[in-house]
């Protein structure tokens, strides 16, 4: 288990520009590219299903991009840690089936309620205390379950497009061998070059205009709050903020949950009238900025968080053009790039699932098959991973929540059983 540290003292009081590195800037760019390549499409799907007009949709993209970018930059500078926030992907998936059932202004009001509740859970420390009370393998299991499908999809993409996607994966392996800090950049460059060489790219339809945000005055409806706010809060906290904190912890950063969740919730409230459904700690792309690909020195990885924020703000004003550009390259290239970029993060999460010291996480020793001693936290972590990776969706709530719930239940049952046997 990676030891948690306070914000690195080696960077204190020094200007951020002195710690800028190509690998950290690229890590921020890759994180943003992955956010636009996949998660943004979920948002666009929700907007389409809800019947939003192009102006409202563009404003939604602007709000989640610019809001996320401002928090990334400010929190990374304040904490000197690679803080990456983004929009709630399971939350957007939830909205695909629910947003169209309510007036848009009522949905905006529900988004504000979710943000306020996030602030309360964050600044009071209630959510942080809950996370610390649970064994690390459970949260690591949620994180690993979220990341694993992306890495597995890279293998499938390589089979579908062996030259482009397979070449990208091979370039990443070679990059890890000869240029480990720039392996992701090498892989992306190789993938784009191969895509052009094989003629698998298309011409994007770009425009010179910038995205203009639209204000929607919120209204508050009890049914919308029950139907949107509460489910959105649950899937965002369990599926994004929890794994986001786990991601930072697994990479050695003692994240201030009160500060970070409070900032994310405040950002959600401020940008909700422009369409932002939820701004939260990133679980997937954070692994790119927190891991070794950003920089070998953990004290200098915060630059990746700043870079991510800057690109978010810039791309937010050209959101439609970014979508066009990402649509111009083969889907398999984006899938493979996401997979190789997240290998390091998955490795860290899996390590925490299977090797976290039971005493350190408060796990109760229980008997396992063969008479050997195991840890309740370990078994709960494996169950959490399996349920989360399954993609299970029940009542519109995505798999990370159910994986978290299943792991917590297994841990509770095994802990109680062990205590009774020991009594």
Automatic annotation (TrEMBL):
Alphabetized UniProt keyword annotations: Membrane, Transmembrane, Transmembrane helix
InterPro entries recorded: Benzoate_Transporter
Which residues are listed as membrane-spanning?
20-47, 59-78, 107-127, 134-152, 158-175, 182-200, 220-239, 302-323, 392-414
The yes or no answer to whether the keyword Transmembrane is present is yes
Instruction: Identify this protein by name.
Output: Benzoate/H(+) symporter BenE family transporter
Organism whose genome encodes this protein: Citricoccus parietis
């Amino acid at each position: 288990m990676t030891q948690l540290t306070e914000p690195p003292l080696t960077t204190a009081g020094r200007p951020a520009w002195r710690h800028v590195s190509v690998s950290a800037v690229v890590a921020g760019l890759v994180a943003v590219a992955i956010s636009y390549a996949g998660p943004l499409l979920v948002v666009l799907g929700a907007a389409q299903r809800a019947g939003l007009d192009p102006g409202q949709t563009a404003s939604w993209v602007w709000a989640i991009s610019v809001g996320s970018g401002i928090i990334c930059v400010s929190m990374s500078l304040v904490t000197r840690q690679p803080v990456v926030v983004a929009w709630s992907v399971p939350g957007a998936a939830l909205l695909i089936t629910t947003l169209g059932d309510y007036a848009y202004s009522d949905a905006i009001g529900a988004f504000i309620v979710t943000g306020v509740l996030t602030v309360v859970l964050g600044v009071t420390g209630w959510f942080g205390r809950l996370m610390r009370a649970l064994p690390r393998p459970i949260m690591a299991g949620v994180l690993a379950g979220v990341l694993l499908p992306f890495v597995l999809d890279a293998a499938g993409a390589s089979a579908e497009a062996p030259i482009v996607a397979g070449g990208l994966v091979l370039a990443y392996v070679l990059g890890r061998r000869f240029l480990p800090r720039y392996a992701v950049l090498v892989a992306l460059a190789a993938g784009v070059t191969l895509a052009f060489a094989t003629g698998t790219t298309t011409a994007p339809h770009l425009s010179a205009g910038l995205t203009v945000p639209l204000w929607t005055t919120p209204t508050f409806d009890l049914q919308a709050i029950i139907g949107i706010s509460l489910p959105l809060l649950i899937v965002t906290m369990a599926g994004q903020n929890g794994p986001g904190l786990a991601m930072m912890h697994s990479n050695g950063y003692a994240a201030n949950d009160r500060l970070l969740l409070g900032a994310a919730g405040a950002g959600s409230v401020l940008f909700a009238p422009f369409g932002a459904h939820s701004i939260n700690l990133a679980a997937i792309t954070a692994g790119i900025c927190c891991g070794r690909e950003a920089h070998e020195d953990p004290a200098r990885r915060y630059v990746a968080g700043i870079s991510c924020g800057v690109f978010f703000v810039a791309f937010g004003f050209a959101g439609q053009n970014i979508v066009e550009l990402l649509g111009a390259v083969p889907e398999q290239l984006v899938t493979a790039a996401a997979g190789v970029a997240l290998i390091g993060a998955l490795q860290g999460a899996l390590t925490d699932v299977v090797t976290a010291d039971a005493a350190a996480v408060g796990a109760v020793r229980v008997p396992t098959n063969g008479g050997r001693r195991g840890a309740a936290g370990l078994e709960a972590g494996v169950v959490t991973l399996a349920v989360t990776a399954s993609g299970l969706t029940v009542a519109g709530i995505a798999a990370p929540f159910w994986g978290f719930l299943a792991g917590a239940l297994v841990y509770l049952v095994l802990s109680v059983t062990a205590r009774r046997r020991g009594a």
